[in-house]
Design goal:
By secondary structure, the chain is an alpha+beta fold. The chain is built from 11 helices and 23 strands. Strands 1, 2, 9, 10, 11, 12, 22 and 23 form an 8-stranded mixed sheet that branches.
Length: about 400
Amino acid sequence: MILTDFLVAGGGVIGINVARELKKAFPDSRVILIEKEPECGLHASGRNSGVLHAGFYYSPDSMKAKLTRTGNKLLTEYCEAKGIKINKNGKLVVAKGPGDLGYLDELLKRGKSNDIQLEDISEDEAKKIEPRVKTHERAIYSPTTSTVDPLEVMRYMKSDALLEGVEIHHGVCFKGKRSKDILTSAGTYQAGYFVNCAGLYADKIAKGFGFSERYRIVPFKGLYLYSDEPAGAIRTNIYPVPDLRNPFLGVHFTVTVAGKIKIGPTAIPAFWREQYRSFENFRVSELMEIIFREIGLFVSAGFDFKRLALEEMIKYSRQRMVSLASVLMNGIKKEQYREWGKPGIRAQLLDVKKRKLEMDFVIEGDDRSMHVLNAVSPAFTCAIPFSQYVCNDIKSRLN
């Protein structure tokens, strides 16, 4: 049996930073992080877009609004201090037609409430930033949006965690809880406090501790399509006005840290939790559970899940993806977009009682355990202050 003061499950960006914050707050304690994979960040944290969001999409009363601006600042400073390459290329949010102008105003209003630096610019001013952009009359420019390589960031954060005294045990999969014991594929751990940062499996782990009673994870697959245009072919990230009723931002252009263009992502309902490619990580029990849940959403969701699902499914077509992207920018040709990037799975939390997708971060816990149930985008951007928030919550429960 392995004894530890704190045991963190999940070696993504949240798990690593929560472990680091716990070690800072309780320097004499033993902090162990278990990760089922041979390396950290092999799921959502290493497969995300790499965008450091500014924080103007979120309603002012949300945790996302409170943490994204700070997260952008702290993660930018972290990358600069470590010499991690960062592409400070900003973002244009464009209007596809007259009907989008009111939504631009709403985003500007949210940005002001969230104290985010934004510029309300004309179509001509938008074209000075990116000559190929398409927009109706106006656009929003976000100068603090940037891109990084998420795997590079993860490597540095893992290295820092180890230097700070966090122990990381790879190849250790959580199996269950028995009294005070945590059962794993590598034996039994006994922890003074347990922190669940398990992403796609966070709800299942939480249920064993008496939490996540009204929540379940619904996985959505995200795919990007890469352009073969040379690096620097566009200057900035270009996004449409999002549908603020759901947590997805629509097909957009992202300029990677290397200057390459990609379009996406999709938000296609997945049929098991780690459905990256073909039948990889296939589990019959997950297939039946998720199909049952998605059928329920088709019938009686508190939002138009049927429309969302069907719209996303047809994005498997390169033609459809390119068509959606071409509304935002000139000179887009299907033959330039042939390579699909590495797929990611979004661990999106569903409130099963209200039948709605949770838009904000969600955590639940007590004086024995804490469970990070919903840490979807922009969790990568928010990782540092969100982890501080989780650690402060834990400290308050232990006092």
